[in-house]
Amino acid sequence: MSELRWDPLKNNWTIMTKGRGRRPQDFLQKREQVKMAACPFCNGNETKTPPEIYAYRPDGSRANQPGWQVRVIPNKFPALGIEGELDNRAEGLYDRMNGIGAHEVIIEHPDHDKSMADLTTDELAEVLKAYRARMLDLHRDGRFRYIFVFKNFGIEAAANVPHSHSQLIAVPLVPPLIATELESCREHFARKERCLICDLIRQERETKTRVVRDDGNFISYAPYASKFPFELMIAPLQHSHDFTLCTDQQLLLLADTLGDSLRRLRSILRDPPYSFILHNAPPLHLRRGRPDYWGSLPVDYHWHIEIAPKLTNVAGFEWGSGFQMNPTPPEEAAEFLRQADPTVRYQD
Amino acid sequence: MSELRWDPLKNNWTIMTKGRGRRPQDFLQKREQVKMAACPFCNGNETKTPPEIYAYRPDGSRANQPGWQVRVIPNKFPALGIEGELDNRAEGLYDRMNGIGAHEVIIEHPDHDKSMADLTTDELAEVLKAYRARMLDLHRDGRFRYIFVFKNFGIEAAANVPHSHSQLIAVPLVPPLIATELESCREHFARKERCLICDLIRQERETKTRVVRDDGNFISYAPYASKFPFELMIAPLQHSHDFTLCTDQQLLLLADTLGDSLRRLRSILRDPPYSFILHNAPPLHLRRGRPDYWGSLPVDYHWHIEIAPKLTNVAGFEWGSGFQMNPTPPEEAAEFLRQADPTVRYQD
User: Fold this and answer.
1) Where does Zn(2+) bind (chains A, B) (predicted)?
2) Chain A (84-103) residues lying within 8 Å, Cβ to Cβ, of chain B
3) Do A152 and B225 touch (CB under 8 A)?
């Protein structure tokens, strides 16, 4: 029997379908290696990109020269533009806003052939520090309501530049799905004086069937109403609403869990295309005294990372209904991922 | 400058991106013809499918024999199962419901090589009559809250059987996106005593820039906050909440506009993959005296069809934020589609 599942955080239902391919081997895909003549993200090609905004240079080398380990640059083809003032107005029954924002690229490593799953925990922690640094900087710009950090791996849209990178987009309003999560958390707290995500984590630790890894600092689990096969959520066990408050030590611990999750997915799904997203609370100063504006009151939210392998095809039904169909129950996904050996590249 | 646009029906924002490919020729894709040894949907292969539920047989031929023009069968691999009683319960903080529903396939024409855009207006009207007949029948089953009719064309998920077909899924709750639209319409009416979609159509007819076709009965236009390039909305000009109330004559007029829209898309985008969805009000008897249950009060809704060509790739940002990025402003899409010649298969 298929099953519908409701997630109190997303406030949404997922249809867990029955009798269709659901195991890792049902999803194996061929990944094409895109070869580029001269990759602009490679060490030594710094002049082929816009000037860097941030870099981690352990050797103390100069900006826009080789020697960096992580490098952040503006996106050459930004979805939103950094120049101008916000212009927010009605157009009859509709509303429009001009597309003020920032769009940056975080180059995760100088080596063209290393994916995020190949990075050491120390190297991955430096990528997370770059996220933190750029978010803190952009939070000072009063035009932005939200800073969005995400990564596409092996997905057509991202394959233009195969060199491992993440992206950051600053947007002039809180994204709809984040707003829903903030609202769920806020309502739950108003009623129960407890954080919803803390409650979910507590239930997951008791149930255990959906937990992939729990090292006492971070938990990685397959969400109850997962929209996608082998979807994962990574969250700190200790309540925190804002990723940018993480210490270096916490980022190192996060890098450990994140790297482990990516390697487990790679091991059983053979380098699956995936997206991951950092879900964070908007900064407090954006509340600006307006009760309807989300700001980072510590009780409002619990930051986390969501990883979604792209194994199924979203077509008419999902697009038009808002229901997602998922053939792999999260309990099965978690079992496969627990048994995966993260040290083996492709498991049989 | 990019632009953010808000749609009062979807209650959602779309980012209209600038400086990226946006014209029809930027989206042309290679479509692979899938050849099948023996297509179960073809005339003469009726025994290869489950027994038919409905058929239009102009020659009066017997069920499950050749001679049909439209044929409806149960999906062999249903996403939801027809047997059993609803079981709706909590699981700690979560909720689950067993997957009771129906999943049917509407075979639109006996000829394997005809796509929906190839059908005559009369033939297409018979497909719409099959939708209506199946919806009316399933509305009598008290376990279902909503009947969802959609079509995937040229999309991986649907390409298992290339023979032209639509699908119908009955679900035990109102799909999230439909619920949002119903809520938008209901709130608008409560405040203004007018149908929101009637208001939107009135504004579109005045603005004109987004209208593709308006024959006095049905309007086809590119929505203001289109999530996808060349997205189209088709709606009756005269207010009606429920598609199943359409007369044969109205379905003939709808077939005329729907066929025209599909042929215009084909002409300039060369058989693009697309999905279309029928958005309808849930039937009145499902309200069951509960004020929080959507039922088809005539003021609550205005049925319509949404067509979304699948030209862009939904990746991390869209999936994780709920923002869609669309490079083609609907005013430009409508201009291309107005100029398209629907009688020419592939326009240059």
Assistant:
1) 39, 42, 112, 163
2) 84, 91-99, 101
3) no
**How many residues belong to chain B?**
348
Q: Which residues of chain B are within 8 Å of residue A10 when distances are taken between CB atoms?
A: none
Residue A20: closest C-alpha in chain B: B77
Topology given in CATH for the domain delimited by B3-339: HIT family, subunit A (3.30.428)
Lowest-confidence pick of A254-263, B14-23, B263-272? B14-23
Best residue in B3, B4, B331 for a mutation probing chain A (most A CBs within 10 Å): B4
Backbone angle region of B272, left / alpha / beta, with phi > 0 → left and psi within -120 to 50 → alpha = beta
- Cα–Cα distance measured from residue A35 to residue B228, given in angstroms and rounded to the nearest whole number: 30
Contacts of B290 (CB under 8 A, 6+ apart): none
Contact list, B196 vs chain A (CB under 8 Å): 93
Q: What is the DSSP string of A159-211?
A: TTS-S-EEEEEEESS--HHHHHHHHHHHHHHHHHSS-HHHHHHHHHHHH-TTE
- Alpha carbon of A142 to those of A78, A87, A137: distances in Å? 19, 14, 11
Q: Are strands A324-326 and A12-16 parallel, antiparallel or unpaired?
A: parallel
Residue type, A106: I
The beta-carbon neighbor of B2 closest among A81, A91, A306 is A81
Strand partners, B146: B171
pLDDT: which is higher, A16 or B91: B91
- CB contacts < 8 A, A to B, total 224
Catalytic residue list of A: 165
Amino acid identity, position A149: V
A155 CB neighbours in chain B (<8 A) are: 313, 315-316
Chain A residues whose beta carbon lies within 8 Å of the beta carbon of residue B277: 316, 319-321
Most confident of A4-8, A203-207, A294-298, B285-289: A203-207
Q: Mean of the per-residue pLDDT values for chain A?
A: 86
Asked if A6 lies within 8 A of B80 by C-beta distance, the reply is no
Instruction: Provide the residue ranges of all domains of chain A, joining segments of one domain with +.
Output: 46-83+96-339
Task: List Cα–Cα distances, B157 to A273, A312, B99, B274, in angstroms.
Answer: 17, 8, 21, 11
Residue pair B278/B149 in contact by the 8 Å Cβ criterion:
yes
Q: Which residues contact B193 (CB under 8 A, 6 or more apart)?
A: none
* Integer CA distances (angstroms), A347 to A231, B33, B141, B284, in order: 19, 34, 47, 53
Q: Does A39 appear as a known binding residue?
A: yes
CA distance A259 to chain B (A): 18
pLDDT (0 to 100) of residue B291: 46
- pLDDT tens per residue across span B147-187: 999 999 986 545 567 899 999 999 888 888 888 898 899 88
Asked whether the predicted pLDDT for residue B29 surpasses 90, the reply is no
Instruction: Provide the ipTM.
Output: 0.86
